[in-house]
Amino acid sequence: MNTPEFVALGYCSNDHLCRIPEIPGDGKIEMTEYRIQGGGPAGDAAVGAARLGLSAAFVTSVGDDMDGRLILADFAAEKVDTSAIRVRRGGRSPVACCWITPDGRRSVAWTKNNLELLKSDEIPLEMIRRAKILHLDGHHPDAAVEAARAAKAAGVLVNLDAGTFTPRIGELLELADILIASEFFARKWSGESELEKALAGLKTLGARVTGVTAGSAGSMLIAEDGTILRCPAFRDLPVVDSTGAGDAYHCGFGVRYLETGDLRECMRFASAFAGLKCGKLGARAGLPTRKEVDEFLRNH
């Protein structure tokens, strides 16, 4: 495989997806659909980048169990380079259980299964230095910080999906070139309930691009002069499952940012990529190809 342009480092899992009429509080309910599919923020981003036409690689650790073998097989099927994935002998791979209701909302319970995290000396430094973009989700914190430092020194764009409060997330926030947080993360980190104020607080960290995703409410970025740029979510798309929509947005934004510095265009592209993803069950099944995104945007 050629040197990957898009290197993602972070969490991936096998997602056990259950479509159900409603989430029971204390009882039983029959599933209407059940599937097992790869998931995880950075893992989904690697697959998304590959579908958008970039050469992609994923860096993480998995166990040598059945789930680990399925994770590796899923990436291979998507032509994502797995050469830097560490397989822990005797380890149990991460899994997640996802419940999806008919309106597309979901609840997720996940575990790392106490799998040994990547160490800072286990990352593929040369691969990262030769990439165009390094995508991080905050997981495997020691390896993520080391990778971000190497990328910055080499002039590689660091794209941070800030959605989870992981150890050393503060260091990653300061190393990010593109810092787009979930609304939950932005509010909690800043202590501001108003999203605009939370966004302004994140901007003080000094990233080239600072933004917030807000689900069906769309996304916001803050320009250099403090102007708030807003992009609504596309409303005329079917919503089967919103799992992984944020993962898709971060991937789509990063890929388009490599192609153009136009922030509004990046937001629009990322919104389309995330919206189209929601048309199928699971975080990855609905990730569209570049042709599909471009065709959609020509008509919307």
Whole-number tally of structural domains: 1
User: Low-confidence parts lasting 5 or more residues at pLDDT below 50?
Assistant: none
Please count the helical segments. 10
SSE succession: EEEHEEHEEEEHEHEHEHHEEEHHH
What percentage of residues falls in helices of 4 or more residues?
25-40%
CATH topology: UDP-N-acetylmuramoyl-L-alanine:D-glutamate ligase
Helix and strand topology:
Elements: E1 6-9, E2 13-19, E3 33-39, H1 41-51, E4 56-59, E5 61-63, H2 66-77, E6 80-81, E7 86-88, E8 95-100, E9 106-111, H3 125-129, E10 133-136, H4 141-154, E11 157-162, H5 169-175, E12 178-182, H6 183-190, H7 195-203, E13 209-213, E14 219-222, E15 228-231, H8 245-259, H9 263-277, H10 290-298
Parallel strand pairs: 1-4, 1-10, 2-8, 4-6, 5-7, 10-11, 11-12, 12-13
Antiparallel strand pairs: 2-3, 8-9, 13-14, 14-15
Keywords: Kinase, Transferase
Pfam families: PfkB
GO molecular function, one term: kinase activity
Q: How would you explain this protein's 3D organization?
A:
The chain has one domain: 3-Layer(aba) Sandwich (UDP-N-acetylmuramoyl-L-alanine:D-glutamate ligase), CATH 3.40.1190. α9 (263-277) packs across α10. The radius of gyration is 18 Å and the shape is globular. The protein has a 9-stranded mixed sheet with strand order 6-4-1-10-11-12-13-14-15, sandwiched between helices. A hairpin with a 5-residue loop joins β13 (209-213) and β14. It has helices at residues 41-51, 66-77, 125-129, 141-154, 169-175, 183-190, 195-203, 245-259, 263-277, 290-298; strands at 6-9, 13-19, 33-39, 56-59, 61-63, 80-81, 86-88, 95-100, 106-111, 133-136, 157-162, 178-182, 209-213, 219-222, 228-231. The protein has 300 residues and is of the alpha/beta class. The model has no long low-confidence stretch (mean pLDDT 95).
